[in-house]
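Blinded run. Sample ID left blank on purpose so nobody reads anything into the name before looking at the predicted structure. Input follows.
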Amino acid sequence: MSPESLAQIDREVAKYPADQKRSAVMSALRIAQVEKRWLSSDTIKFVADYLGIAPMAAHEVATFYNMYDRSPVGKYKLTVCTNLPCALSGGADAGEYLQKKLGIGYNETTADGKFTLKEGECMGACGYAPVMLVNNHTMCNHMTPDAIDRKLAELN
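Blinded prediction complete.
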């Protein structure tokens, strides 16, 4: 990992008591994923070793939470919320529209490697439904077909 990423991890570790480095594992995995674009077993082991925890402890976190990608994803990972409030407010329709528009299903990546489509759990933005998360960091709301088209054009 780059010195910049390691410095970011060090800043996260510093937030906790010296004997509680394990508390920074979620942040450290997020930082590693931003740099590497996904978390290979080797990257997870590196993070665990860096934090001084068992590799299995980091692996458990990386496989439990859906924001961590355990296989390569496209340049833009689009995660559509399809939990009930979003689904009732157009989330399912937004997902279907994206599948048709991109020519892929959930958990697939376009042939050019640009987009990966994921189905996501509640993102805590029910009042803005349907919502979509881009690369785990950018929340897009009221994702009508027109809004989706504008967002895809912006990402191209």
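Unblinding after everyone has recorded impressions. The longest strand covers residues 76-81.
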